[in-house]
Amino acid sequence: MIAETGLTALWLAALLAGLQLLLAWSAAAKGSPDARRLLRPVAVAQGLLACLAMALLIALFLRSDMSVYLVAANSHSMKPFIYKFAGAWGNHEGSMLLWVAVMSLAGGAVALFERSLDERTHFATLGAQAAISLGFYAFLLLASNPFARLDPPVADGQGLNPLLQDPGLAFHPPTLYLGYVGLSVAFSFAVGALLTRSVDARFARAVRPWVLGAWVLLTLGITAGSYWAYYELGWGGWWFWDPVENASLMPWLAATALFHSASVLAARGGLRAWTVMLAVVAFAMSMVGTFLVRSGILTSVHAFAVDPTRGSFILILLGIYIGGALALFAVRAHTISEGARFDPVSREAGLVVNNLMLSVILGLVLIGTLYPLLTEMMGVRVSVGPPYFNSVVGPLALLLMVVLVIGPMLRWRKDDARTALRRSLPAYGLGALTLLAVVLLAHGRMSWLSALGLAVSAAVALASLAPLWKRNLLRTPLFTWGMVIAHFGCAVSMAGMASESAFSVEKLAAARPGDSFQIAGMTVSLDNVMPHAGPNWTAMQASMTVSRDGRVLGTYHPQARFFSEPPTPTTESVQMTRWDGQLYLVLGDELPDGRWQLRLWWKPFVTLIWYGGGLIALGGALALLGRVRRGRRHAPPAQAVAA
Amino acid sequence: MATAAGQSAIKRKHQRLILVLLALAAMIGAVLLAFWALSGQVAFFYTPSQAQEARVEPGRAVRLGGMVEAGSVRREADGVSIRFRLTDGKASMPVAFSGISPDLFREGSGAVAEGAFEPDGTFRATNILAKHDERYMPREMEGIEYDPTTHKVEPAPQ
Fold this sequence. Notes:
- Chain A is an alpha+beta fold and 643 residues long.
- Chain A is built from 18 helices and 11 strands.
- Chain A folds into 4 domains: 1-165, no CATH class; 169-384, no CATH class; 415-504 and 610-614, no CATH class; 510-604, no CATH class.
- In chain A, helix 15 (448-464) packs antiparallel against helix 16.
- Chain A starts with a helix and ends with a helix.
- Chain B has 2 domains: 2-41; 45-148, CATH 2.40.50.140.
- At the A-B interface, helix 12, strand 1, helix 13, strand 2 and strand 8 of A face helix 1, helix 2 and strand 1 of B.
């Protein structure tokens, strides 16, 4: 019964989305009083129904109901509780249902809480949101029904891919989805504002919290995903330029550009058309990401469903929404009035440079990700990997950081180039000194990209604190604190990346129990390798003692695991975290002569990468909180605006 | 900055036009940069016979995919270096690799080696991808069948 109830809830939600679209049209275009009254409750009800469907799917997974196809194909009754729970979205249908549930809930939130827009634009926004939801409901109900029954039911399921059986999975995909969905809301706002010809500062203020929120979640999702890949895959890398990683990076880049340009629109009324365009691009990137992941068209660990019909369905949705929005933009672009002007040297101009560079990086990542698809259509199989991405994205990211030093120090509207340079001189000076020190101490041992990375990090770290200079810290607004912390986080993260790529030490060895060897001034000894059992796996587990100067730092247990359902071996690496880096331990195969393969890395300051990511997200969250609080205090009541 | 100089030269009332032109220039620049970089950095995929035919130059990063020939895996004394042969039924090539081979790397099943040829014709792999689990394998290897006794390889239906 649970499955049937879930399916009914989904159909009802889809019907309500259709109704919402009609009501929105009638309310915004005709001003029908009935439609105006009904629209908001319908949007909220639609959100609640979609969430009910998701909750019921989770219930099916928790009960291990093997008469449901999705559960049988992806779960197993012996699986630990948390993976039954997370397994609900560890597959194609479940993850699309999660997407739809979150999107409808967001639509409900827009209906309930949005007060700064005028009423017609608000209605048009809700209509756009309903139109997007409708497409995804169709996708779920017609091409990927999560509640399909299996007749006859099987005794037990096939289990979840062991790589995905990790606590990281429990919250990594939902975080990213929340981010994607936040961008769908921004897209709806942009379409709504275009429809009612009201692209102005109020639109920017309404859209900004959603973009910031989405961006914070994407940042967290990417950071968590990167750490997950780092310890779970056991390859020692933290970013592989895998298509699925790029799928999360591209919306992030667009969202970063979008909230920077929205801040120009909100504060100064400039960059109107550009902001609307970025809102469309950001959502397009979310959908391209979904398409890449869900169609399984590119090789990836994440591509669980290889199904061309689903891929083309998403491609069609992408074409309809993005094509439609671009057509609307083309028709309405001339009605977007030109915003306030600014000087070539000003905060606005700095943000234009930020936007242009982020867009270029986005374009490079997009082309690199799609290029293999393009050549495959012509019969040539290629792969585009780190050599391409590092060589084009690396230098541009560095350049962006150089601009980030001076950008926040510029005044709005008009600034003097000479005084601005004087303000940023200490930061650039520190960067130059760092570069000099790095070149002197480590010349020949590191690439110029890493050396420049460290130098630029130092400059940005100092410059990011400049907005707090000579200010009463308690009276500094929250969003200023947010900006400072996020920019500081960029410096921290980049320092970690540069240090990891420049100073990592790797050791590959075959050892018998009792053997020990040296790495980065530490002694690692292999004590023993013993069998070990978990809830749904068995393993060979090594016991390794790490010591420095005769003092034991700890004993660590990397494993080579074997999962029973489905039968799959995996590698469980272990990291010893110190303040100055991580020792990364991997247990490989047993050799015929009784030795064990071991792989070790010492990665200096690698943890800064993810601490930086956390700081960036924290900064975004503070900025969001600051904006929402100020918005509450300063916004005129919605009724007054509507009248 | 060059952009700033350009802007002050022209009158400020053309600001919107300038911004549009800047955006266009940036996008065109991105596309040109991408294709220029791709032409040098992209890694082509070959099976052993295709690689022989194409005479891939030593040192150029490529991916070599095929079946790990039965009985060809040799382990060296250091315990972490292996040598094996990859075959596509028409040709077979020696591969050398140092590291921990992937969990599902074994004789008679598919593998894709990333790396470059050495001047002596050995493929020096920096990374090996093997069939990962029942539902995931290197895309290039889908549908290829291998008979470990006769070394016959059935290519994937095109």
